[in-house]
């Protein structure tokens, strides 16, 4: 089983990943955080690591490289070469979803447009969780971050960039996942989110949550 946690920087992804790991452990299900490509042995991983990921929103080349040579190929490889084989639940911290969203917010670049047109080219997740938070909340979190990069700062200062990023996740990339949650992390605690996500992951049937005003609405 695979769970994806994604969203704009400073939205609380790392905190939720930690909370999910704790929640699943309490339920007797081992879970491990994972980043990058899903396939255990992706042949192009060393080359992709040489690209400055912090510049991806401003680079059509980097966006294209990660979406095609990276994540599209990864979707094929992971079917025969998964990250774990012992039944451990994988909690993925960021994936192709954010690459496509950044490519639209910073571009739009052709590769990102095509990714949104055909999101099923990329590996799906049993449960995907997209996080967001108001700019003032992310600004407060930015002030406490020791090493903020250009993407962190831009996401706080450029409202149009942040809004486009989140919209592209929800309206485009989220379509391929079995279940989708969207949380405003300024209104829902990590523990509450982790409990809801774990219930959906270990339960039956899809659950889709979307933000409505300051709350959440359950939809079929």
Can you describe this structure in just a few lines?
By secondary structure, the chain is of the alpha/beta class.
Explain what you see.
Helices cover 45% and strands 17% of the residues. It is globular. The chain has helices at 13-26, 45-49, 60-77, 96-106, 110-117, 135-144, 150-157, 159-171, 190-202; strands at residues 2-7, 31-34, 89-93, 127-132, 179-184, 208-212, 215-219. With 220 residues, it is α/β, with parallel strands linked by helices. It has one domain (2-219): P-loop containing nucleotide triphosphate hydrolases (Rossmann fold). The longest helix has 18 residues, at 60-77. The chain has a 5-stranded parallel sheet. It has a two-stranded antiparallel ribbon with strand order 6-7.
Features:
disordered C terminus, 220 residues, alpha/beta, globular, Thymidylate kinase, P-loop_NTPase, two-stranded antiparallel sheet, 5-stranded parallel β-sheet, single chain
- Return the structural class: alpha/beta
Number of helices: 9
CATH domain fold name: Rossmann fold
Number of structural domains: 1
CATH superfamily membership:
P-loop containing nucleotide triphosphate hydrolases
Beta fraction? 15-25%
Residue stretches low in confidence (pLDDT < 50, at least 5 long) are 204-220
Work out the radius of gyration: 16 Å
The overall pLDDT average reads 90
InterPro entries: P-loop_NTPase
Organism: Streptomyces alanosinicus
Protein name: Thymidylate kinase
